[in-house]
Amino acid sequence: MQGENCNGVLSILMILTFSNFLCTALGQSPQLGSARVVFQTNYGDIEFGFYPSVAPKTVEHIYKLVRLGCYNTNHFFRVDHGFVAQVADVGNGRSAPMNEVQKEEAYKTVVGEFSSVKHVRGILSMGRHSDPNSGGSSFSILLGDAPHLDGQYAIFGMVTKGDETLKKFEQLPTRREGIFVMPTERISILSSYYYDSEMETCEQDKSLLRRRLEASAFEIERQRMKCFP
To answer: What is the pLDDT of residues 68-112, one digit of tens each?
Structure first.
């Protein structure tokens, strides 16, 4: 029986792995996890989710930085219309100092988790230096398709809300510094928060069920009073 259970679990894992491979091979987006992060900027909010099946170590690292509040007071240092909006490294981009716990996580790097997922608008892709394992806390949000980045940078998530905010970014005046196109005005991440989309759905479902039960109880009592005064 125990062997059968193990075989069943193994089969499920193989199916999930193959499904993810098939999606990426067909150019489709992999499944987002339930965690959501919201960056509240001075130009509007941006919400994104993660691809834990594609880049688990990267997702774990970035999500921990978010939970520690490391991106608060940081900024988007780069906005290249139709290409990328890039978040600054938290070690240098914040206007507020970090505490020791934040510093410990902020200066860690993660192994390059390159995949076959495509760089299209809304994708989150890690920044790095020439070392493929040098990704830290800076990442880009794609503002257009960039096939030349495919397989070279670690994709770990996707924007779920806030494309109108990204369009505002693209309308800002910019200046060029070397290879970077940078906004002339600071795009600040004023604050950030995170939540579990599945838990929120459950709470909504429970609230709806509670209202339905209350309505049913009221109707039963009304019929009882009508039939058995």
So the answer is: 999 999 999 999 999 999 999 999 999 999 999 999 999 999 999
The pLDDT value recorded for residue 29 is 75
pLDDT for residue 10: 43
DSSP code string of the chain: -HHHHHHHHHHHHHHHHHHHHHHHHTT------SEEEEEEEBTEEEEEEE-TTT-HHHHHHHHHHHHTTTTTT-EEEEEETTTEEEEPPHHHH-SS---HHHHHHHT--B-----S----TTEEEE---SSTT-B-S-EEEESS--GGGTTTS-EEEEEEE-HHHHHHHHTS-EEEETTEEEESS-EEEEEEEEEEHHHHHHHHHHHHHHHHHHHHHHHHHHHHHHH--
